[in-house]
Amino acid sequence: MKDFADLRAAFNQERGKVRIITLLSPTCPGCAVRGASELRDKVLARISGDDLRLYVVWVPALPTDDESKVPTAAARLADERVRHYWDARGETRTIYQRLMNIREPAWDVYYVYDRDAEWSAEPPKPNYYMHQLCSLPPEFMLDGDKLASEVSKLIAAKARG
After folding, report:
1. How many CB atoms lie within 10 A of CB 153?
2. DSSP classification of residue 141
3. How is 38-100 classified by DSSP, letter by letter?
4. Which end of the chain is more exposed for a tag (fewer CB within 10 A), N or C?
5. pTM, full prediction
């Protein structure tokens, strides 16, 4: 388990790869079960190779969330391209709330970045996103097939470029 402070460095170090940052609660069934399963079964399983990185930031979104719950939740995303982080203070929730201009702290969200994205003072705006929140646009509700398609397009852009 890596600390939240390592996320920015890893994101920038792996520039040149398509990257997904997701903020998940380790005890929320929608996040830890459905969201993680969509990522595992529809994105990671369908997109092979080393052109993809997934950064899972486990956040305290529910009263039941704490670091001791992360290993069980993280086991659903056991893949060499996945990096796990625990954000004990929920900083990423607040940062993405501000960045994406949403009404509530961000969680159960899936942000996709192209190969050139660089994180400076704050994370860059994503090229694409999905979520499982009632307060965000329904057309971006998590759909693993659609997410895999968008990620594949960004990966294919290198082959054309």
Report:
1. 14
2. B
3. HIIIIIITTS-SSSEEEEEEE---STT--GGGHHHHHGGG--TTEEEEE-TT-HHHHHHHHHH
4. C
5. 0.94
Mean pLDDT in residue range 33-61: 95
Residue with tokens 């903020």: 23
Q: Give residue for tokens 């890596």.
A: 2
Among residues 105, 110, 106, the alpha carbon closest in space to that of 140 is found at 110
Q: Could you tell me the maximum CA-CA distance found in the chain, to the nearest angstrom?
A: 47
Q: 99-104: long-range contacts at Cβ-Cβ below 8 A with a sequence spacing of 24 or more? A: 99/123, 99/125, 100/125, 100/129, 102/133, 102/135, 102/136, 103/135, 104/133, 104/135
Sheet of 18-24: strands edge to edge?
2-3, 82-86, 52-58, 18-24, 109-113, 128-131
Q: Pairing relation of β-strands 2-3 and 18-24?
A: unpaired
| Lookup: tokens for 127 | 């090229």
Question: How far is residue 50's CA from residue 141's CA, in Å, rounded to a whole number?
Answer: 27
- Per-domain boundaries in the chain: 2-160
Superfamily of segment(s) 2-160: Glutaredoxin (3.40.30.10)
